[in-house]
Design brief:
The protein has 186 residues and is mainly alpha-helical. The protein has a domain of 106 residues: Four Helix Bundle (Hemerythrin (Met), subunit A) (Up-down Bundle), CATH 1.20.120.450. 54% of the residues lie in helices and 7% in strands. It has a two-stranded antiparallel sheet with strand order 1-2. A hairpin with a 2-residue loop joins strand 1 and strand 2.
Length: 186
C-alpha cells in the first residue's frame, strides 16, 4: 500500500476511512469499567492477605486489616443503598461476618450487586443526588456519580494501606498499578 504524498491525498484518505464509533461511553458505563478494574485489584490484595493476620494493626491508632476489609464492605453497602434507594445513611447495616473469608465473600457479592444495579439504573443516575457528609457534623448533597467516585477512591486509598499491612503480615504484594517486589513484570 502506498502512502499519500500530498495534503489533498491525505485529506481524501482520511475521509474515505471507515467511520469509527466516536460516541463516548456514558458516565455510568465509564464508572462501571473503572469500578470493576479497581475492585479486581482490591480483590487481588485481599486474596493475598494472610487471613491469620487479620488482627494486625501497625500502630495503636491504625485500623486492623479486618477493619479495613469491613470498610470496603460498608462502603460498597453505602454505594448500593445510594443507587437503589437514593439514601446512604440509616437503615440496617449488613451483619458483620466473623471471619476474613466470610467478609471477603460479602465484598465479592456486593461488587456484582452494585454492577447489576448500576446497569439497570443506567443514565438515570447521572442527574440523581444523594445526601452525605460534606464536613464534620455537616450534611449536603452529592451528585450521584460524584458520590460513587468518592467511594471508589476511598477504596483505592484503603487498598494502599492494606498493601502495606500485607507486606508486614508476611504476604506477597501483588501487582497493583505496575510490578511489585513480589510480582515483577520481567
Amino acid at each position: 500500500m502506498t502512502q499519500p504524498t500530498s495534503s489533498t491525498e491525505i485529506t481524501s484518505s482520511r475521509m474515505s476511512a471507515p467511520a469509527a464509533d466516536s460516541r463516548m461511553p456514558s458516565p455510568v458505563a465509564q464508572y462501571i469499567k473503572a469500578y470493576q478494574r479497581e475492585t479486581a485489584t482490591t480483590r487481588k490484595v485481599l486474596l493475598a492477605y494472610p487471613s491469620n493476620q487479620a488482627d494486625l494493626k501497625p500502630h495503636e491508632k491504625s485500623q486492623s486489616a479486618k477493619q479495613l476489609l469491613w470498610t470496603f464492605v460498608m462502603e460498597q453497602a453505602m454505594a448500593l443503598r445510594a443507587v437503589r434507594d437514593g439514601v446512604v445513611l440509616g437503615g440496617t447495616p449488613p451483619t458483620k461476618p466473623e471471619s476474613w473469608e466470610e467478609m471477603l465473600g460479602l465484598f465479592e457479592r456486593q461488587e456484582q450487586d452494585l454492577v447489576n444495579v448500576l446497569r439497570d439504573k443506567g443514565d438515570d443516575l447521572v442527574d440523581a443526588k444523594v445526601p452525605f457528609f460534606t464536613g464534620p457534623k455537616q450534611m449536603g448533597e452529592y451528585q450521584m456519580m460524584d458520590f460513587l467516585w468518592f467511594m471508589l477512591h476511598d477504596q483505592i486509598h484503603h487498598r494502599g494501606q492494606l498493601s502495606v499491612y500485607l507486606r508486614m503480615a508476611g504476604g506477597k504484594v501483588p501487582s497493583i498499578y505496575g510490578p511489585s517486589g513480589d510480582e515483577p513484570w520481567n
